[in-house]
Amino acid sequence: MFGIQPRDVSDDDFNPRRRRWSLWTTPPASMPTTSHTSRPRKGHANAYHMSVKFEDLCGFMVEGNVDDVNVLNEVRERIREQGRVWWALEASKGANWYLQPRISSNGGQGVISVTSLKLSVLTNTVTLRRLIRKGVPPALRPKVWLSVSGAAKKRSTVPETYYDELIRATEGKTTPATRQIDHDLPRTFPCHPWLNSEEGQASLRRVLVGYSFRDSEVGYCQGLNYVAALLLLVMKTEEDAFWMLAVLLENVLVSDCYTDTLSGCHVEQRVFKDLLAKKCPRYFFPPSIFMLVFLSENHAVIVNYIRFSKWYRIAAHLEAMGFDVSLVATEWFLCLFSKTLPSETTLRVWDVLFNEGAKVLFHVALAIFKMREDDLLRIQHIGDVIDVLQSTAHHLYEPDELLTFAFDKIGSMTTNTITKERKRHETVVMAELDQRTRRLGSLKMDA
């Protein structure tokens, strides 16, 4: 469909443990089924749009409007263009040009000097970062993700039979995690034909159950089903999806995001709240305002004007309203936007996530708020805030629009800064969780 076909992937290989299929043979998004309803597109100020059901670029049946279909067709063309760039680089630099070269230890042919190695790695890193932000072609995603995330390296540290043996060891065993997984499987993306099939759910179950046995501390947490399901669709084999899930939970994301207490998720949300206040600050004062305040005899009137004008920014406005970012951010951080954004937009976010780390989630979350800043400042009810943010995210079929906001209009944030913020909040979160545990224990004793 995209003019970019997987090189060594056969659609006829249906081994249930290593199932391979092509995601990119779905009908064009420009062939919608029109339903007889009309509704406003809440994420945009203009027009009423006819509601249509169509298949998106990853095979999900979704409901949107004609504008969404047109955007998807434009995105499909850009995917073709980006694919040509990647294939050209593979032709000129080699099939695995984005892999870090190794220094030969035996002095034989192909020795790379330390100087040339550093230059090569630096050049490739800059090129790769720029390319990945523009999107990885679907046919290359499995290989690129395995490489840049560290999943391939993690898998190389265990025997080749590790996954198969792990799955065999789980057969016939029942745990609290397996029971919850069985409960969640039918509810995991029922709008995708394969994931809603018996075969798809069996494949997803093996990946989730396998990881629950690999890491009993995490076991299984709701939200992982959506993450693993999308990984399965992209990676094309269970084993690759399993290792992507492993590197995600063990290396990419902050620790304890999916444990019983969700302490890591609580920390991330508090860091996000702080970032929202910094990136979308309480006030923005043009120089003329300072002069106006200085010259005015009634400072209170001027300050009150500033407070309720457009310069009264998102963080303060939402705080005054009593809005808690966890009302939307919990799902964003647990499901990594897989339930929030359109599938191809989610995959574009994940392209960058696996290459640059968890700070990408903050960039994207801030971008969604920033994109609707003017509308959010006019809203006076918490429910309307949630509705605007959800509607905006659901209609972001244009990945470049979101990622441009995320990386060009939010500003930089270093990993070191985020790490310091996490450590500061972690102490508070752990103390609160400990206090809650003791309080619950006391209530049980009294009962």
TrEMBL record:
Residues 23-37 have a biased composition (Polar residues). GO terms for molecular function: GTPase activator activity; small GTPase binding. Residues 135-357 form the Rab-GAP TBC domain. Residues 21-43 are annotated as: Disordered. PROSITE patterns: TBC_RABGAP (PS50086). InterPro entries: Rab-GAP-TBC_dom, Rab-GAP_TBC_sf, Rab_GAP_TBC_domain. It comes from the Eukaryota. SMART domains: TBC (SM00164). This is Rab-GAP TBC domain-containing protein. Coiled coil: none annotated.
